[in-house]
């Protein structure tokens, strides 16, 4: 392959980092520096497998393209990769950059040399680093030269939240972040013209060995305008900016709560802008209000472009700013058709066709109204001969108001982080579940959504009500239930249920770091209390209470979902998930209603088992067609854990190794699944465990996933035989047929 390279050139195969460290430096620090530099140096070599640069080979194998848009050109762009050639000039540049990088991290007096080792037209770079001890921060002092003005006091006040901590390593990036933090805090206090480059750091590393004293100061001769607090004068909103249909001459302005609004077509109620804009006349400027106001206007989704401008009031001693918002409206009405693919946790994949109509400003208050109709086919992957095909028809409506629709709760635009919203939903769905039965459901809800800050969001649904009706049970389905699960027959056939509930949810997403990310979400739901007040008691005390002649559910349900991922390097990422679910049925309910129960197994769950193929507990669905006909292995409680090592082969292909574990349990009801299905003190002995490998293809807008998994632990076997690792036999066709599960899905599993 090297024969194809340009004359006199060599293929670059990568870099070798040699760190010669001072004896006082810890081994772990040396390893960290080595790994960071290996990632830092450029260029990166060509993509290779087992050392063979296969994409370079593909680049040359078809020959030189004759046409820029021909097949060969397309093949090169899609599958090939031009060779990365070795260059001594690049090595010299990298040597200088390595010195700069390490000095910025406090490894002062460190030196670097670089060389190019060429053998048979394959060349690698060798960098030798003479690493000196890293300097640590000692004293940190904010210097104001005795300035007792409002600015001087504000600057000293920023020291309370400084990023510079005694004992931490000296780091240039931390100094840059500290400078930006100081600017941000001062701008939040009204110092509109202050800039981060007005802050300087003076470092003294001479007086103490491997320690640095930092003095934070303001540049001398900084203009007084940067040290002055500015206040808001007039606020202007141009609601039709860029609309050529509007005649801007002689436009009458509306003043609402001190905001001048130009809206000649009278599209919006003035309250929309008063709620979105946090500034008020006479209050000091704050960058926080600026950012929040822009975010609110954008999140209204009514405007294509949002532009903000501040103008100093023309007066020699002025400390007043006029604020302008230029808004370019979106088209308020739209009709869309969508063709989509889906992958669900119950191992159902499929396609849907939907038609959506949307109105962005239904009642002139930036309300978003949508109505959609869809139909789709879902097919169960990994179920073999027992796979189920569903057909679904759905109509959904939604109305979202950019405010709390509650009379006694008022929104304060100068305090709240973001606009709250109120959403009304009404949905109808019809499902034909293979040759088993049919289900219809009608549901409605009222939900309030608000963000406490940039990392924490809340949703409260005071009223959610669903009516689920199951009918047209097939003869084969009923016959199977009579033969293999007669204890479940009465419960499954009596599936007409009303589910009235209230739900609280939270979503916590702290800002990710360079190497890791964390997310936590949870919910608490209580159902049936209001219904019990309205319900009419049956004539017999042995009969359940009903609401409008239909049984209703009473339960408490709580969920927690924790996700953590760590970036090992640019190619490898470690992702983890833990899911906990607990349902407590009470009153006239012995278990959660089926739509609210937990299931495990499938492409987004425990991938070594088919959907609904595990649990509850040690329960085992008997019979050849158990998966098809029961299809109801669900529980009131859930524990699931997933860990996955993801490796990026190239921009198109990703690989994965994963282990999944978990199960579901009934809380108290032994009727459906017997005592083996009820949660007990030995629940951990009933965990299912599976492992496997994955291959993913990233098509930019679509990630196609193939996960091949096998059980390591089967909870339904006798306790001493549940670990089945010793039984793994890839050469046996019978073993492969029973134990290898292929999951084909769209998107990552979590």
UniProtKB/TrEMBL annotation:
Gene3D superfamilies with a match to the protein in the record: membrane protein fhac: a member of the omp85/tpsb transporter family (2.40.160.50)
Lineage: superkingdom: Bacteria
Keywords: Cell outer membrane, Membrane, Signal, Transmembrane
Protein's cellular compartments: Membrane
Residue stretches making up the Bacterial surface antigen (D15) domain: 412-716
Pfam families: Omp85
Name of the molecule in the record: BamA/TamA family outer membrane protein
């Amino acid at each position: 392959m090297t024969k194809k390279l340009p004359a006199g050139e060599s293929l670059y195969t990568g870099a070798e980092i040699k760190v010669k460290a001072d004896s006082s430096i810890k081994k772990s620090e040396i390893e960290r520096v080595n790994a960071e530099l290996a990632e830092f140096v450029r260029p990166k070599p060509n993509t290779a497998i087992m050392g063979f640069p296969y994409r370079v080979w593909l680049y040359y194998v078809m020959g030189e393209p004759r046409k820029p848009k021909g097949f060969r050109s397309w093949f090169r762009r899609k599958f090939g990769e031009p060779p990365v050639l070795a260059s001594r000039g690049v090595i010299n540049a990298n040597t200088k950059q390595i010195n700069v990088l390490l000095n910025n991290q406090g490894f002062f007096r460190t030196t670097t040399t670089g060389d190019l080792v060429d053998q048979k037209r394959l060349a690698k770079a060798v960098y030798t680093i003479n690493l000196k001890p890293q300097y640590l921060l000692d004293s940190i002092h904010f210097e104001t030269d005795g300035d007792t003005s409002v600015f001087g006091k504000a600057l000293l006040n920023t020291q309370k939240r400084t990023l510079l901590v005694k004992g931490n390593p000296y780091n240039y990036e931390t100094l840059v972040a500290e400078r930006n933090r100081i600017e941000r805090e001062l701008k939040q206090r009204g110092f509109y013209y202050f800039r981060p480059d007005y802050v300087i750091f003076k470092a003294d590393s001479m007086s103490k060995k491997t320690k640095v004293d930092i003095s934070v100061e303001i540049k001398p001769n900084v203009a007084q305008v940067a040290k002055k607090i500015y206040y808001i004068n007039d606020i202007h909103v141009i609601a039709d900016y860029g609309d050529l249909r509007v005649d801007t001459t002689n436009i009458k302005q509306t003043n609402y709560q001190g905001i001048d609004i130009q809206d000649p077509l009278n599209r919006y109620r003035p309250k929309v802008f008063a709620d979105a804009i946090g500034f008020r006349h006479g209050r000091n400027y704050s960058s926080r209000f600026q950012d929040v106001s822009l975010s609110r206007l954008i999140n209204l989704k009514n405007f294509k472009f949002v532009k903000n401008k501040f103008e100093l009031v023309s007066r020699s001693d002025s400390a007043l700013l006029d604020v302008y918002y230029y808004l370019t409206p979106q088209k308020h009405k739209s009709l869309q058709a969508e063709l989509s693919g889906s992958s669900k946790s119950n191992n159902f994949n499929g396609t849907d066709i939907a038609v959506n109509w949307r109105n962005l400003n239904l009642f002139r208050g930036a309300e978003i109204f949508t109505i959609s109709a869809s139909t789709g086919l879902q097919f169960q992957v990994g179920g073999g001969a027992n796979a189920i095909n569903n057909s679904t028809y759905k109509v959904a409506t939604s109305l979202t108001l950019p405010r709390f629709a509650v009379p006694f709760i008022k929104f304060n635009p100068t305090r709240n982080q973001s606009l709250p919203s109120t959403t009304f939903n009404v949905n109808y769905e019809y499902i034909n579940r293979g040759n088993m039965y049919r289900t219809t459901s009608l549901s409605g809800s009222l939900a309030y959504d608000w963000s406490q800050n940039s990392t924490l969001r809340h949703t409260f649904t005071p009223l959610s009500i669903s009516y689920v009706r199951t009918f047209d049970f097939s003869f084969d389905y009923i016959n199977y239930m009579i033969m293999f699960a007669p204890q479940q027959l009465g419960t499954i056939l009596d599936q007409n249920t009303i589910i009235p509930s209230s739900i609280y949810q939270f979503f916590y997403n702290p800002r990710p770091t360079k190497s890791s990310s964390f997310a936590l979400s949870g919910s608490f739901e209580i159902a049936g209390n209001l219904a019990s007040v309205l319900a009419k008691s049956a004539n017999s005390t042995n009969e359940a209470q009903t609401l409008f002649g239909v049984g209703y559910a009473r339960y408490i349900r709580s969920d927690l979902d924790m996700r953590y991922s760590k970036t090992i390097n640019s190619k490898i990422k470690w992702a983890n998930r833990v899911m906990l679910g607990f349902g407590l049925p009470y009153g006239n309910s012995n278990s959660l209603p089926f739509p609210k129960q937990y299931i495990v197994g499938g492409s987004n769950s425990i991938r070594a088992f088919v959907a609904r193929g595990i649990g509850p507990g040690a329960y085992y669905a008997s019979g050849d067609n158990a998966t098809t006909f029961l299809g109801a292995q669900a529980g009131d409680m859930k524990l699931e854990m997933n860990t996955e090592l993801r490796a990026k082969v190239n921009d198109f292909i990703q690989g994965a190794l994963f282990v999944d574990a978990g199960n579901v349990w009934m809380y108290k009801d032994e009727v459906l699944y017997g005592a083996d299905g009820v949660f007990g003190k030995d629940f951990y002995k009933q965990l299912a465990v599976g492992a496997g490998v994955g291959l993913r293809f990233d098509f930019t807008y679509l990630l196609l996933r193939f996960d091949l998994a096998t059980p390591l632990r089967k909870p339904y076997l006798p306790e001493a035989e549940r670990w089945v690792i010793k039984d793994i036999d890839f050469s046996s066709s019978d073993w492969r047929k029973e134990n290898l599960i292929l999951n084909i899905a769209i998107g990552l599993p979590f």
